[in-house]
Amino acid sequence: MAPKLYGFNGNPRTESVRTAAELEGVSIDYVQVDLANKSKEFTDAFPAGLMPALEDNGFKVSETLAVAYYIATRNNKNNLFGKSDEEKTQVLQWSSWANTNLLGALAAWFRPIVVGPFNKKASDDGKAQASKFLAILDQYLADKTFLVGQRITYADLLTAAAIQRGCDHVIDAPYLNQFPNVARFYNTVLRQPAALKVYGKEPSPIAKPKEYVPEAKKKADKSAATPAAAAPKKEKKPAAADDEDDEPAAPAEPKAKHPCEALPKPTMVLDEWKRQYSNLDTPVALKWFWENYKPEEYSLWKVTYKYPEELSPQVFMNSNLIGGFHTRLEGSRKYLFGNACVYGENGAAKHAIQGVYLIRGDNYLDVFSVGPDYESYEFTKLDPSKEEDKAVVNANWSWEDEVDGMKAVDGKVFK
Question: pLDDT tens-digit profile of 343-361?
Answer without folding.
Answer: 999 888 899 999 999 999 9
